[in-house]
Structures are given as C-alpha cells and as structure tokens.
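Protein chain data
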Amino acid sequence: MISKKGRPPVDTAAVMVRMPVEMIAAIDKLRREEEDLPTRPEMIRRLVEKQLEKSNPT
C-alpha cells in the first residue's frame, strides 16, 4: 500500500469519532509497526479500508 501523506483528496468529508483511550493506544501501537509511521487519521483510514476490502471482495 502506498503512503497517502497529507490532506485527503477534495472529494472527502470529515468524520468525528470518539474512541476509548485503550483503542487509541492500540492504533498508536499499530502505527509504530508501519514503515512510514502514518498519522492517526491515516492509520484509521488504512484499517477501515482493509476491513472494507475484506467485507466486500471484488
């Protein structure tokens, strides 16, 4: 997967999500395992994208 640093494309919408601190810590742990150390929002996008691909294989 290619790193998508910076602001997402214009055809996006912001989503505000509250998470338990334990979940944020788990996301941060996963971030540190990535070669490019993505931001939290980028890591969340990657996780959601991966789950969506698993749920809707084409």
User: Anything to note?
Assistant: The chain has a mean pLDDT of 89.
